[in-house]
Amino acid sequence: MDKTMRRFWILNHYATTPKTGPMLRHFYFAKCLKDREIETTVFAANELHQTGDTVDTHGKPYLRTEEQGVPFVFVKTSKYQGNGFSRVKNMLSFFFGLLRVAKGYARTYGRPDVIMGSSAHPLTSIAGILLARRFHVPAIVEVRDLWPEAIFSFGKVKMDSLVGKLLSAGEYWMYRHADAIVFTKEGDVDHIKEMGWDKEHGGKIDLTKCYYVNNGVQLKDYDKSIKKDILPDRDLTSDSFKVVYTGTIRPVNNVGNLLDTAKLLEDYPDIQFLIYGGGSQLEELKERAEKESLHNVIFKGFVEKKYIPYILSRSSVNILNYSQSQYNWSRGNSSNKLFEYMASGKPIISTVKMGYCILEKYQCGRSLETCTPRALADEILKIYQMPDGAYKKMAENAREGAKDFDFSVLTERLYQVIEDVKKD
To answer: Is the pLDDT at 2 greater than 50, yes or no?
Structure first.
């Protein structure tokens, strides 16, 4: 790599430090890149998406902090609630805030050599391209969610509408003007082909500038947490066969399907469903379980994220419970939960069949062809009745597979992207 490479900027509206929230992908990248003597600064909004809290910038346009040697810049943005106009305003305020503070920040702390704008929404990536032009440096676009496809799939906007066409045109512009594109799902590059945007189909995007760097897990921290952050719970230490779900309990997560499944397995008293998480459907489903006398279902409610590694390590099988219809799963999975499940060294069942399936690749779990309670019950029984040797092998495969998604490995892949754009 060019010896002048010293500073890398990552722009991510929703990034957090370990003290401010759970969105740690870019914190871990920054921490690992220090070993390459690259100072990585993460720019995020001061209004925290996951927790609803605010980082006080003390009336200034931004606050710079450091945690474990990683510089974080919290840009002052407008407050918002829900997914309406106030959230759009918040996105715009982060976009313009980045453009406003970048020059002064660079003057004080040094100019970047490469900038990466990460999309949960595309305005952040567009800001990254504009700032890269301003500083005459390469721009990387990281796509963690395919926008506007995600909007189209939820039916909020039609692809062939005027708004849909404008959004797609903006997405195409973003990909064309990026020096590299990083996708978190292995099959997301197929989207470019399907849209006819690659050179082979008459478009202007060179697919050689597309890379795949999934989400992952910091195994060292994960293992420490299992030993340190122990959650006292007799259900976790019992000899029962524990079917564990962790996550939000709301309609899109289809947790009611687990209750239907549990009902089919009532004749197996040592199979217990342990459901961890809070959400809009929690009370409703708890009432249903009580009304139907589902004694094999126990709702544990919300738990702090630090306890999740220990909980998963005590499971017998972990459930990735998704809705088949609410999302396009053909391009793979980049859910943080998947890699936490793998790190626990326990078999996994996914309620949807995915393309580029990591469970199949690593032989560490099973995927359902159809998301029905009967199909899920049958898969649970197959693992429940599996010979010890086969069960142990599947569990070992999960843990071994997680090593490919440790942030030390993922950072090397990102480093290669940085190296390639600096060469061009």
So the answer is: no
